[in-house]
Specification:
Helices cover about 30% and strands about 25% of the residues. With about 625 residues, it is α/β, with parallel strands linked by helices. The structure holds 5'-O-[(S)-butoxy(hydroxy)phosphoryl]adenosine. 5'-O-[(S)-butoxy(hydroxy)phosphoryl]adenosine (WT7) binds next to helix 11, strand 24 and strand 25.
C-alpha cells in the first residue's frame, strides 16, 4: 500500500464483528438487498416488510416497504425483555461536574413514557412536528425518543443557533409544540435558551405550547396558557403510567433536521423509522464494534446528525451504554475530557478534528495526567482530519493501540458512508473505503470518472436504507440538489480523490457550505443575517482555512451610503450575526469594500474574494462586470 499505513492489531481483528472485511464487502456487492435484509432481521418488526428496496420511483427510494416498526421500541422496549433491563443506558455529567445522573434501560423507558404521555396530552398526534431546542441534558434524549414512540416528527435545533434561525425552522416545520429548557451552560456562561424561544415565537402562529425543562434555575418569563414547566407537568396524573408505542410504517417520517445548503433557506432533511433504524444500527455495530462491555462516548450535540445517529439512536439500538457530557472539551481546564474518560471508563470515543486540534495545542501534559487505558477505539467526524492531528490522537490519546475510525457521511446520508472498520488498515486523513453495500465514484463536471489520484466530485452509486427520503415540503429541491446533475447517482457536494489502493480522501465542499469547527453553515445564511443590519447594502461570506476550526467565516461588506467603515462597525456586525443566526456563525472578521466583485449577470464572485483574501491568483476574470 502507498503512503503511511497503520495496520490493525491481531486483538482488534479477533474481537471485531467483521473479521473478513473483503468477504463481507463482496457479498454485499453481489446482493445489496440481501445484505440489508439480514441487518434488518436483527431488529424487531411488528410486521415484516414486503419488499427490501422499492426503486420504482427514483430518486424517491423506499426501504422495507410494508414493514411495521417503531425505532423507539427497538431503542428501549426490546431491551427490557433481556438482561439489559438493568444495564446502564445513559450516564450523564453536568458541565460543572456537580451533578451526575444515570439511567438503566428500565429507567430510560420510564422517562421516555412520561415525556411521551405529556407530549400526547399537549394534543400532539402521529405526524405532528415538535421542535426541540435544548442544551445537552438527558431530557433532550427523552424528548426525541418520546416523539418517535408516539409517531410525532421531531425537529431538533442546535442550541448554538439563535433567534432568526430558530424562528425560520419553527415556521417552516409548522410545529405546534416546542420543548426547551430555561437555559444551558456553556463554558461557565449561561445561554438563555428560553428567552431566545420567546423572541423567535413572536411570529410563529402555529405554536400552541412550550414545555420548559428547568436546568439553570435562573429567572425567566413564563407566558400563561402557552408555557409549562416540565416538572409541573410530571406531577400531573396524565404523566404517569405506560405509554403505548405507535405502530409505524417503515417509511413513516421519524424526524426532520435542518441543514445548510447553497441558498439562504435551510433544507429540512427527512428520515424515516425503518431505513434510518437499520442504517444507524448496522453502521455503529460494524464500525465501532459496540458490545455490552462498552461505554460509548460521542461528543457531538444532539442538534446535529451525528448526535441523532450516534449519540441517541445507533447506540440505543445496539443496547449500548451511552455517556453524555453537557460541556465542551476545555472548560474549566483542557483535561476535562481526559478526566471523564478516566472516571467513567470510556472504551469508545468519537469526536471531531476541530476538538482534537484545539486540545493538541494545550500539549501532552494534560492527557498524560490521566489513565486512558480503558479506550479501545477512537473516531473522527465532521471534516477532513489533518494527518498531524490524526497522529496525535492516535499516539497521545490512543497510545498507539486504538484504531481511529474516520467516518465520512452527511446529514443526508443518515449513517456512515465512507469509513473503515477496526480490521481495515488505516491511512491518516483518509476515511478508507465505502461501507458495505456502497460504492463511490469521483467524476469531472460532465460526470466522467477521473483517474485515481485526481480530484473530482464525489458521488454515491447505490441507494442505502438510511438515505434521506426528501426535503420536507420541497421534493423538487430534493431532486434538483442531489440527483439532477448526475442522474441515478447521489451528488454529495464534496470533492475527493481516490488513491491507488482504492482509499478515498475527502477534500471539502464544492458548494457554498462552510464547515466551521465541523458545524455546517451556509454563506447565504450569514449574508441574510447581515443584510438585516441597517448599514449593510450587500455582503459576501466566505470560508477561509483556520488552524483550529478547519474553516472560519469571513465577511466582506459593502455599506449603504452614509455609513463609514470602521472597527466598531465591524464588531457590531459580528455581534449582529451572532445574535440573529447564532454564536456558532459569528464571523471571524468583517472587512469593508467599496464595491463587491460581480459577474455581468450580477452574481457575487466569492471565488475572487477568496483568492484575494489568501493572496492567491484571482483566476479567470473575464466574466467580471466593468
Ligand atoms: C459534510 C457533511 C455527518 C457527520 C457530521 C457532518 C464533511 C463529514 C467528514 C470526514 C471529511 C467530512 C463533508 C460532508 N465531513 N465527515 N470524516 N472527513 N469530511 O454532517 O453537517 O451534514 O456535514 O461534512 O464535507 O459533506 P453535515
Amino acid at each position: 500500500m502507498e503512503g503511511e499505513v497503520f495496520y490493525p492489531s491481531q486483538d482488534a481483528i479477533a474481537n471485531s464483528y467483521v473479521r473478513d472485511w473483503e468477504a463481507l464487502a463482496e457479498s454485499a456487492r453481489k446482493n445489496l438487498q440481501g445484505f440489508w435484509a439480514e441487518r434488518a432481521s436483527e431488529l424487531f418488526w411488528f410486521k415484516k416488510w414486503d419488499k427490501v428496496l422499492d426503486d420504482s420511483n427514483k430518486p424517491f427510494y423506499r426501504w422495507f416497504d410494508g414493514g411495521k416498526v417503531n425505532i423507539a421500541y427497538n431503542c428501549v422496549d426490546v431491551h427490557l425483555q433481556t438482561f439489559r433491563k438493568n444495564k446502564l443506558a445513559l450516564i450523564w455529567e453536568a458541565e460543572d461536574g456537580k451533578s451526575e445522573r444515570t439511567f438503566s434501560y428500565y429507567a430510560l423507558n420510564r422517562e421516555v413514557c412520561r415525556m411521551a404521555n405529556i407530549i400526547k396530552a399537549m394534543g400532539i398526534e402521529k405526524g405532528d412536528r415538535v421542535t426541540i431546542y435544548m442544551g445537552r441534558i438527558p431530557e433532550i434524549v427523552f424528548a426525541m425518543l418520546a416523539c418517535a414512540k408516539i409517531g410525532a416528527i421531531h425537529s431538533v435545533i442546535f442550541g448554538g443557533f439563535s433567534v432568526d434561525a430558530l424562528h425560520e425552522r419553527i415556521s417552516d416545520s409548522e410545529s405546534k409544540l416546542i420543548i426547551t429548557c430555561d437555559g444551558s451552560m456553556q463554558n461557565g456562561k449561561l445561554v438563555e435558551l428560553k428567552r431566545i424561544v420567546d423572541e423567535s415565537l413572536r411570529h410563529c402562529p402555529t405554536v400552541e405550547n412550550v414545555i420548559v425543562v428547568k436546568r439553570t434555575g435562573h429567572e425567566i418569563p413564563m407566558e400563561g396558557g402557552r408555557d409549562h414547566w416540565f416538572h409541573d407537568l410530571c406531577a400531573l396524573p396524565i404523566a404517569n403510567g405506560k405509554c403505548s408505542t405507535e405502530v409505524m410504517d417503515a417509511e413513516d417520517p421519524l424526524f426532520i433536521l435542518y441543514t445548510s445548503g447553497s441558498t439562504g433557506k435551510p433544507k429540512a432533511i427527512l428520515h424515516t423509522h425503518g431505513g434510518y433504524m437499520v442504517g444507524t444500527y448496522a453502521t455503529l455495530k460494524y464500525v465501532f464494534d459496540v458490545n455490552d462491555e462498552d461505554r460509548f462516548w460521542c461528543t457531538a450535540d444532539p442538534g446535529w446528525i451525528t448526535g441523532h445517529s450516534y449519540l441517541v439512536y445507533g447506540p440505543f439500538l445496539n443496547g449500548a451504554t451511552v455517556f453524555m457530557f453537557e460541556g465542551g472539551p476545555s472548560y474549566p481546564y483542557p483535561n476535562r475530557w481526559w478526566q471523564l474518560i478516566e472516571r467513567f471508563g470510556i472504551t469508545i470515543f468519537y469526536t471531531a478534528p476541530t476538538a482534537i486540534r484545539a486540545l493538541m495545542r494545550f500539549g501532552e501534559a494534560w492527557p498524560n495526567k490521566h489513565d486512558l487505558s480503558s479506550l479501545r477505539l477512537l473516531g473522527s467526524v465532521g471534516e477532513p482530519i489533518n494527518p498531524e492531528a490524526w497522529k496525535w490522537f492516535h499516539h497521545v490519546i490512543g497510545k498507539d493501540r486504538c484504531p481511529i475510525m474516520d467516518t465520512w457521511w452527511q446529514t443526508e446520508t443518515g449513517a456512515f458512508m465512507i469509513t473503515p472498520t477496526p480490521v481495515v488498515p488505516l491511512k491518516p486523513g483518509s476515511g478508507t473505503r465505502p461501507f458495505f453495500g456502497q460504492e463511490a465514484e469521483i467524476v469531472d463536471e460532465e460526470g466522467n470518472p477521473v483517474p485515481d489520484g485526481q480530484e473530482g466530485f464525489l458521488l454515491l452509486k447505490n441507494p442505502w436504507p438510511s438515505m434521506m427520503r426528501t426535503i420536507y415540503k420541497d421534493p423538487d429541491r430534493y431532486i434538483e440538489t442531489y440527483w439532477k446533475k448526475y442522474p441515478g447517482k447521489y451528488m454529495t457536494g464534496d470533492s475527493a480523490r481516490r488513491d491507488k489502493d482504492g482509499y478515498y480522501w475527502i477534500i471539502g465542499r464544492v458548494d457554498d457550505v462552510i464547515k466551521v469547527s465541523g458545524h455546517r453553515l451556509g454563506t447565504a445564511e450569514v449574508e441574510s443575517a447581515l443584510i438585516t443590519h441597517p448599514a449593510v447594502a450587500e455582503s459576501a461570506a466566505i470560508g477561509l482555512p483556520h488552524e483550529v476550526k478547519g474553516q472560519a467565516i469571513y465577511c466582506i461588506v459593502q455599506l449603504k451610503p452614509g455609513f463609514a467603515p470602521g472597527e466598531d462597525l465591524g464588531e457590531e456586525l459580528r455581534q449582529h450575526v451572532a445574535h440573529h443566526l447564532g454564536p456558532i456563525a459569528r464571523p471571524e472578521e468583517v472587512s469593508f469594500i467599496d464595491k463587491l466583485p460581480k459577474t455581468r449577470s450580477g452574481k457575487i464572485m466569492r471565488r475572487v474574494l477568496k483568492a484575494r483574501a489568501q493572496g492567491l491568483p484571482e483566476g479567470d476574470l473575464s466574466t467580471l462586470e466593468e
